[in-house]
DNA sequence: GTTCCACAGGAAAGCTAGGATG
DNA sequence: CATCCTAGCTTTCCTGTGGAAC
């Protein structure tokens, strides 16, 4: 146990979010290495880098200022403002790539409206992230339950969809006023469940007696409305706003704006903000990415007990973020998908050339049986291969081998040396690591009989 | 030009788990 | 307790495909 605690935190696999722990003291090397030492160090530590709340650099933080989004804030506010006077606002679709400030702008307009609504009107907001709530049932249930005041009024799982819809309507009518429904990542809802629920919601104002509904859809996919039924499309598209990506100078302004409240004067080297902004500008002008880079660079510097954050720290932060994204992704795969990826990595390690679907399936089936896991059908594995490719963990090219048939040639797109240990964190796959270590020990003992051992 | 291979991938059915209802 | 409902995952069935072999 003492050995476990003595392992520097920075050398352990990142837990959960896969990121460094939030800014704080570097691990003590001088102490006895107990948990108590670590806690003492945290409590007594005062960073030379930070003066303010480090959370300001997190993407979840909603800042009071949104540089270079003043125009979009005005546009969104103009569309939603009629709700304050008791009229129904137009439905609104907001498009833009990841990290262009869509969600933050809507959140800020929402806050402003809620402040005024308390005094002048009756506007409610329901924010739904369609990445997690992506079925008609769960969406209607979530909307209805946001109005439920008692446990009895809540809509349970198990009712028919019609009944859920009816209950949601009644709850909305009971409350009255205007509901602004914010559907973040609305494209995910459509791709997962089609547009039937959007049709239902867009028709809702015809059925409601006292309540009114306006939909604000937020999407990263500029073309998602092309999959919609024409009626739904025209209803949702009453107003639309496009958020352009930030360029490097704009990202610099955003970073400076936040850095002012977080860092002590003069601790950021010249070029740190510029480098973070430049990296993020190359990746579609993603402000979240720029903030993550600055945040992790500061954490790295803090851990190194550095008195300044330098460009080198940004470079380290970049590679750390890239690796963590991959490893996080691997850790959250379904079990069969992990076994499949393991089989691909094994085959790829041996051959160092593309592996064909049939070979991958055989390897996967063998590995599954070894682990006591009933292998899935090849059709399911085909789906998992598509998923692994869309996650960027493998690359698959369709090749035709003539009479040898048409198949996918798969190459690995992640560092094997780091991905295999991440997969072996899984309880089932850990068996393979234990077996490998055991045979390695036996071989070592066989080669060097003088080192002692059971023989 | 036709045949054949080994899949790719769409559609639909089947199965399981979990909760509600009478 | 049987029945009904949904979600989520898997299997089954099927058609389509590109290019070497015939």
Descriptive report:
The chain has 455 residues and is α/β, with parallel strands linked by helices. The protein has helices at 2-6, 35-44, 70-80, 102-120, 136-145, 161-175, 186-193, 196-207, 230-236, 248-262, 272-282, 287-303, 311-331, 335-351, 357-370, 378-390, 416-423, 427-447, and strands at residues 92-96, 123-129, 177-184, 211-219, 239-243, 355-356, 394-400, 406-412. The strands form two sheets. It has a five-stranded parallel β-sheet, with helices on both faces.
Short description, anyone?
The chain is an alpha/beta fold.
List the helices and strands and how they pair.
Layout: H1 2-6, H2 35-44, H3 70-80, E1 92-96, H4 102-120, E2 123-129, H5 136-145, H6 161-175, E3 177-184, H7 186-193, H8 196-207, E4 211-219, H9 230-236, E5 239-243, H10 248-262, H11 272-282, H12 287-303, H13 311-331, H14 335-351, E6 355-356, H15 357-370, H16 378-390, E7 394-400, E8 406-412, H17 416-423, H18 427-447
Parallel strand pairs: 1-4, 1-5, 2-3, 3-4
Antiparallel strand pairs: 6-8, 7-8
The protein binds a DNA duplex (22 and 22 nucleotides) through helix 16, strand 7 and strand 8.
